[in-house]
Amino acid sequence: MLNRKDLDPEESPSAQFGQRLRLLRDERGWTQDELAARVGCSGTHISAVETGRRPPTRRFASSIDRVFGTGDRFERQSLAVRHTALIEGFPEYVAHEGRASEIRLYEVGIIPGLLQTPEYAATLEADAVRREAITPEQADERVKLVAKRQAALVRSPSPLILAVLDEGCIHRPMGGSAVMDAQFARLLEFAELPNTVLQIAPFSMGARRPFSLPITVLTMPDRSLMSYAESTHRGHLERESTFVLPILTAYHQLQAEALSQAASVAMIEQVRKGSP
């Protein structure tokens, strides 16, 4: 018990789930191994869930409800926990994204969610599962969220979407050739839409590229501005225009330095064909 980790239920849904699980286990005087034997898993797994290091699957939560006689309380709570595959701040951003009249985004390394095909998104999340960063259930939730975000933008009036992709986004293979071919087709279709602009920021920009990390700027229906950026563990939604305006200015500079849409489409078609 000397190394028993203190839990803060306010930290995350996972921590709240873990604290409630530990509380019921302690009330019955069971060790983690004793609970594990009743649930059908290992004591190590129980420890990981209690401390928030591993999110509970729906099946695991259902087993906990059966063991403790709590109806479907833990199973319902696990639904909220599974959303923790989305980093802190992102769900709030998505809500604003679905209402924005203008979306300006810059992405590095991977095709952004709003432009991903389902197969590309599934391949990306499958690798996260392989690395045990998320569970298969969380991967499914992320892929479904991509579709929901894209569907939310099919409305009238259509939002203006300006996307600048670092050249690395189109050179990084994701899945097999069929997955990438469909993804390139999706990018080309996106560029043809009347409410979109697609540009590639070539490697040759070098130091003139104003951003080193992905950034998004939203213009809301009332013309207010928001920016969104992510670190490894959380996202930050900035609503103060004093801080957003310099980002918007830098974004305009990025667009001016990036390839035109016509040149960007030509580059995508070259990469798609395997041309140098």
Descriptive report:
By secondary structure, the protein is an alpha/beta fold. It has 2 domains: 72 residues, 434 Repressor (Amino-terminal Domain) (Orthogonal Bundle); 184 residues, Endonuclease, Chain A (2-Layer Sandwich). It has 12 helices and 6 strands. The longest helix has 17 residues.
Number of domains: 2
> Strand-and-helix sequence, N→C?
HHHHHHEHHEHHEEEEHH
CATH topology of the largest domain: Endonuclease, Chain A
| DSSP strand count | 6
What is the overall pLDDT average?
A: 89
Q: What is the CATH top level name of the largest domain?
A: Alpha Beta
Which overall shape is indicated by the principal axes computed on the Cα atoms? elongated
Termini Cα gap: 61 Å
Strand order of the largest sheet: 3-2-1-4-5-6
Structural class: alpha/beta
Rg, rounded, reads: 22 Å
Fraction of residues in β-strands: 5-15%
Low-confidence stretches: none
CATH architecture of the largest domain: 2-Layer Sandwich
Instruction: Note the total helix count.
Output: 12
**Biggest beta-sheet profile:** 6 strands, mixed
- The residue fraction in helices comes out at 40-55%
Short structural summary:
The chain is an alpha/beta fold.
Task: List its salient traits.
6 strands, 2 domains, Endonuclease, Chain A, 12 helices, alpha/beta, 434 Repressor (Amino-terminal Domain), about 280 residues, six-stranded mixed beta sheet, elongated
